[in-house]
């Protein structure tokens, strides 16, 4: 059930698992939202930037949880205040975060190259350097803890080899449509060669000794591992009518059930045998709080085991801080926004992780301390799957368990993750690449030697993390940089929040026509695709 006000704004939504409400100020900003009785209040400055968010006391917590934000004149976050600490964020003229400093002593220095790619991170216990190849792909990572990792790519920017100094290597071959066809993994504990068998629809039916079975909707319903000398081990998956994973049965017979709010966000996972559960609270599309419960007594009562709050950089899926039992940790993320360390306000590393190419954790201090993986992904230890907002991702296969919810609008490989996980992201589990796909599209401009060269449109949800640019714009900058020198190419987004590529195309045409009307010039990069309308000159008397 959904309810809207006279202005068409969503004010109430309800299903059997959750009840949501929203309140707005005079200019349409959300000032209060509720989720199953939990109240979240928001305050804003004159520029529309959120200055304070408060999760009020409720069923699970007795005291408010408040985060304060400070922004500069451009709306960029420059300080974060929570748990009696303050994190200052310094940025260069292009808005890139070059320094983080806590009042308690933590420091993180970051460097970027001329293209905007992260090249170095330095802190008391963190040392990491990045290099990139001529195509802008990640080439090496030198980490003080994990050693050197070197990557090689094919001409389609897909990863062929990841060679690790201290934890073995991975290599991949791909089929004609870009899906992994063969993987070889060499680690201290042994070697594995895995052949991938896909059907014509791109569904994975076998990888190594593991078989996959799907229903008529293309959703994974059974995974069976067959090893010589052992009984088969099977996982069973049940889906609801909205294509959401509702239940998983493990080989040991454990059952986990999952519930979702009216917006499709997961709000609860529950084990009926042990009566353990985890409840989730959301701030938009990012996780705000985890509440872990265990049974108390013989009835259905539960008691809180622990509560974890998460803070993300506003408007992104990049985590900044974690708070549990009053203990604050800052999150150090890599070039892709993946958490690599948790650091106390005084600079001590209390958690770190090392990852495989497709996101599996190779080594970590305590996986439960930080379940966030690639941006937008949350690891479920009971299944090994990563909840990815609208879908579930399996890092062991580099595939989702179900087709893209937006159907063919998501592309010709409906189960696939991104083609290069070192440079591409899919924080919602959706691919938006059709002319009618809905999302956040924008208009960009490119200047070469200060002269306007091109206007274009791009999907602003698809970002190349090495440069921070929309992927379409990143590709254009890379191409022109080879020809003219990267230092002579300027690029920026001039319009955003356009709902479809059709609307973006219409605005692109309008921007080009307006420019032609003013200058009688068609930018060089648009001459093949844009034909201006020649308007008659005004007649004189």
UniProtKB/TrEMBL annotation:
Protein name listed in UniProt? RHS domain-containing protein
Q: Does the keyword Lipid biosynthesis apply?
A: no
Q: Which UniProt keywords apply?
A: Repeat
* Domain RHS protein conserved region residues, every copy: 330-362
This protein's species is Nannocystis pusilla
Teneurin-like YD-shell domain residues are 87-224
Q: Which InterPro entries match?
A: RHS, Rhs_assc_core, RHS_repeat, T6SS_VgrG/RHS, TEN-like_YD-shell, YD
Keyword set includes Repeat? yes
């Amino acid at each position: 059930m959904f309810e809207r006000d006279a202005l068409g704004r969503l004010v109430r939504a309800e299903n059997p698992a959750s009840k949501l409400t929203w309140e707005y100020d005079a200019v349409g900003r959300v000032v209060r939202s509720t989720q199953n009785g939990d109240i979240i209040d928001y305050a804003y400055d004159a520029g529309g930037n959120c200055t304070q968010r408060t999760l009020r006391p409720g069923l699970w917590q007795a005291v408010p949880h408040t985060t304060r934000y400070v922004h500069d004149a451009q709306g960029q976050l420059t300080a974060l205040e929570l748990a009696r600490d303050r994190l200052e964020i310094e940025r260069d003229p292009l808005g890139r975060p070059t320094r983080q400093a806590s009042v308690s002593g933590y420091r993180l220095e970051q460097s970027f190259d001329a293209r905007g790619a992260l090249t170095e991170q330095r802190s008391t216990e963190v040392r990491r350097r990045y290099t990139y190849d001529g195509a802008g792909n990640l080439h090496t990572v030198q980490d003080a803890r994990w050693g050197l990792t070197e990557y090689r790519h094919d001409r389609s920017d897909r990863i062929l080899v990841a060679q690790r100094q201290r934890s073995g290597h991975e290599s991949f071959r791909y089929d004609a449509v870009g899906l992994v066809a063969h993987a070889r993994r060499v680690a201290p504990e042994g070697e594995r060669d895995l052949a991938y068998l896909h059907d014509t629809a791109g569904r994975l039916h076998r990888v190594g000794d593991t078989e996959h079975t799907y229903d008529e909707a293309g959703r994974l319903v059974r995974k069976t591992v067959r090893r010589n000398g052992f009984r088969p081990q099977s996982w069973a998956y049940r889906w609801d009518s909205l294509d959401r994973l509702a239940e998983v049965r493990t080989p040991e017979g454990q059952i986990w059930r999952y519930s979702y709010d009216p917006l499709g966000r997961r709000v609860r996972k529950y084990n009926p045998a042990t009566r353990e559960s985890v409840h989730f609270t959301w701030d938009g599309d990012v996780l705000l709080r985890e509440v872990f419960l265990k049974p108390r007594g013989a009835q259905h009562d539960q008691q809180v085991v622990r509560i974890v709050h998460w803070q993300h950089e506003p408007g992104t899926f990049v985590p900044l801080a974690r708070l549990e039992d009053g203990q604050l940790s800052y999150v150090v993320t890599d070039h892709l926004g993946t958490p690599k360390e948790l650091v106390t306000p005084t600079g001590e590393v209390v958690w770190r992780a090392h990852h495989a190419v497709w996101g599996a954790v190779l080594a970590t201090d305590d996986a439960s301390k930080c379940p966030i993986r690639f941006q937008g992904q949350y690891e479920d230890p009971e299944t090994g799957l990563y909840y990815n907002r609208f879908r579930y991702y399996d890092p062991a296969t580099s595939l989702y368990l179900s087709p893209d919810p937006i159907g063919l609008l998501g592309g010709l490989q409906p189960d696939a993750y991104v083609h290069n996980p070192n440079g591409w992201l899919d924080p919602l589990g959706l691919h938006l690449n059709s002319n009618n796909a809905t999302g956040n599209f924008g208009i960009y401009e490119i200047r070469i030697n200060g002269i306007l060269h091109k206007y274009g449109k791009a999907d602003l949800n698809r970002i190349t993390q090495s440069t921070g640019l929309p992927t379409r714009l990143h590709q254009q900058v890379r191409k022109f940089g080879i020809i003219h020198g990267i230092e002579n190419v300027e690029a920026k987004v001039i319009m955003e929040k356009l709902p479809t590529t059709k609307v973006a195309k219409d605005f692109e045409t309008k921007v080009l026509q307006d420019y032609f009307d003013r200058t009688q010039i068609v930018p060089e990069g648009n001459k093949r695709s844009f034909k201006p309308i020649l308007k008659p000159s005004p007649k004189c008397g």
